[in-house]
Amino acid sequence: MPGPTGRVLTLLELLQSGGTRTVTELADRLGVDGRTVRRYVDHLIDLDVPVESVRGRYGGYRLGPGYRLPPLMLSDDEALAVLLGLVAGRRAGLMTAERTASETVSAKIRRVLPKHVARRLDALLESLAFTDQPGEFATPDAGVLLTIADAVRHRRPVSIGYTDRDGRHSRRTLHAYGIVAHAGRWYVTGTDPEIGEARTFRLDRIADARTLPGSFEAPVGLDPAQRVLSGFATAEYRHEVTLRIHGTVEQIRARLPAGVASLEEPVPAADEDRATERWRRVDLRAERLDWLPPVLASLDRPFVIERPGELRDLVTAFADRLASYARQA
User: Is residue 173 classed as helix, strand or coil in its secondary structure?
Assistant: First the structure.
C-alpha cells in the first residue's frame, strides 16, 4: 500500500486525466475516506497545483485551466506497459514509424527511469522470448496516418496519392470510414465517390494525403474491420472456389477465417441451435490452390468441392500421398 506521498501523486495523476472527479470516486481509487481526499487536495494546492472545487450534484475536484503538466513520470507498471507495447507493436509490424523511432523512444524512457526500475525492465526484456519471428512490414507514414484519421473522425473527404501492387500511381478521392490493423499491416476503408464503390487501401502504399472541403455521411452500422476482411475474401484472384462443408460456423471459421473466405450463414430455425452442424456454402478466391488440400484435411469435416475441378485433383493427390506415407513401415 503506497504511503501518503504516493497517494497524493496518484491523486494528481487522476486529476490530470481530465474531467471532474467526485470525492467518492477519488476516495475509492485511493483507498481512503473523503476527509483524507480533501486533505490531499490541500497538499496539492500548497504545491501551487490549481485544484478547483466544483459544487453541485456532479461536483468534485478538477484541475484549473491552463495548468502546465510536470515532466513525464511513470510508475513501474506504467513503464513496463509502455516498453512492452513498443516491443509487441514492433514484432507485430504495427509501428507507424521507422524502427529508429521505436528504439529512440525506448532509450528516452529508460534514461528518465530510476536505475533500479530500469535494471528490472532490462532484465525482463532480455529474458523475454517469442514463439514467432518479428514482423517485417513496410510502415505507413505517420503524417498520412494522422491526416486520414482526422478525416475519418470529422467525415471529411481526403485525397490520396496511391501506388497499387503493380506499381501504378494514381490520385484518388476517398470517403474514409475507418482505419484497420490486420495481420501486421494498416488499411483504410471507405468509398470512392467518383465511382460509388467500396475501396480499401494499404496505408504504407499511400505517399501523401490531404483533406478536401466538404463532408459526407457514413453508412449506419458499418463495421470497417468486417469490410476489410470481406474485401480480402472477395478480392480478384486467379481461382474462384466454391465449397459445401458440413459443420458449425465455429468449426469452419477455425480454418477458413473471414479474411480468407465468405461463409453462407442462413438464418437458423426458431428451434435450431447456432452450434448445430449443417451444410454451409463457402466461397473464396485464391491465386494458388496448393494450400487448400491441407486446410480441408485439417477441418476434418465432410465437404464437397463444387468448383474448380483442379482442386478435386489436388485433394485426391494429397490424400494418396498421406495414405502412402501411413503405409510405410
Answer: strand
